[in-house]
Write a structure and sequence with these properties.
CATH topology of the largest domain: Rossmann fold
Order of helices and strands: EHEHHEHEHEHHHHHHEE
Number of domains: 2
Strand content: 5-15%
Distance between the termini: 51 Å
CATH class of the largest domain: Alpha Beta
CATH architecture of the largest domain: 3-Layer(aba) Sandwich
Shape: globular
Strand order of the largest sheet: 2-1-3-4-5
Radius of gyration: 20 Å
Helix content: 40-55%
Structural class: alpha/beta
Number of helices: 11
Length: 297
């Protein structure tokens, strides 16, 4: 058998983990598992194709569905090799992005009857405030955390299946129950689910929390993408689950509404949602007067 497989989220964290000196192979999972078309548990190829189309749209065409499909197929093939390892170590953050991913991976591992897994979930690190995730840590800092990994229990696997089911079906009743859960076997899930529920469009404006925070920043006179990012980040709940691709998609959606709530001025009609598509420094965003009241955020 092979020795250790480390599974984590994010290329930056994966690169640092590979440089940390900790023995074992590093496998970085790529997907946005808190939304989009899928079913609970292991996906079939039709679901992978649907997710590839969804992720192409999510990145504004920055990632082609062909590349995404190849990546998705490859990572599930890699996950199938998990029983070949003496031990799996799952490195994940406390945020919504990672918790939905962690739940899905654990659900898939259980389907393979592969339960030789340890979990290392990091929600804070001395001297880093706010702490949003493993990608903020240097290789030596990651190495200092390694002794904190603990076995994934049967209760954790069962709870992960429940969480994966809720996200796959976008089950509001299940979300409400998970957000209110006390003594959850995966203790970071309730806060992550509660943050996802805040993205549900509210009755007054029809907008989710991120969209409302963008409009609030524009009302305060912030008008460039990078400054909007930093302003919204400072106002949002940490650990932050979203990155620039997600925020640019939200701003583009505000511009696409009828009537539009923002105007985007720049070399392209909409913000580029992937690196290299256009220079973000050439864009300005303006809130339009016919927007609804953003309300309390």
């Amino acid at each position: 058998m092979r020795s250790v497989l480390h599974i984590t989220s994010g290329d930056i964290a994966g690169s640092s983990l590979a440089k940390s000196g900790i023995p074992g192979e590093v496998f970085v999972w790529h997907d946005i598992l808190y939304e989009g078309p899928r079913r609970p548990g292991w996906p079939d190829d039709d679901i992978l194709r649907a997710r590839a189309r969804f992720l192409e749209q999510t990145t504004g065409g920055g990632l082609s569905k062909e590349l995404v499909l190849k990546t998705l197929r490859s990572q599930y093939c890699q996950l199938k090799t998990a029983p070949e390892y003496e031990r799996l170590v799952l490195w994940f953050d406390a945020c919504l992005f990672d918790q939905s991913m962690l739940a899905h991976i654990l659900a898939c591992l259980r389907l393979q009857v592969c339960q030789n897994a340890d979990l290392l979930c990091v929600d804070a690190f001395p001297g880093i405030e706010p702490f949003d995730g493993l990608g903020q840590l240097r290789p030596a800092q990651l190495a200092s955390l390694y002794d904190r990994h603990r076995p994934v229990t049967d209760a954790m696997f069962s709870f992960a299946e429940r969480v994966d089911h809720a996200f796959a079906l976008q089950d509001r009743v299940a979300f409400d129950e998970l957000a209110a859960c006390r003594d959850a076997p995966l203790p970071w899930v309730p806060a992550a689910v509660a943050r996802w529920l805040q993205e549900t469009p509210d009755a007054q404006s029809g907008l989710g929390r991120l969209e409302r925070l963008v409009l609030e920043a524009l009302r305060a006179g912030v008008e460039t993408p990078r400054k909007i990012f930093s302003t919204v980040s400072a106002k949002d709940t940490h650990p932050q689950f979203w990155g620039d691709t997600t925020l640019w998609a939200k701003i583009n959606a505000l511009a696409n509404r009828q009537p539009p709530l923002v105007r985007i001025d720049g070399p392209t009609p909409r913000l580029p949602q992937w690196d290299g598509m256009a220079d973000l420094n050439l864009f300005t965003i303006t809130g339009l007067p016919n927007k609804p009241d953003a309300g309390d955020v």
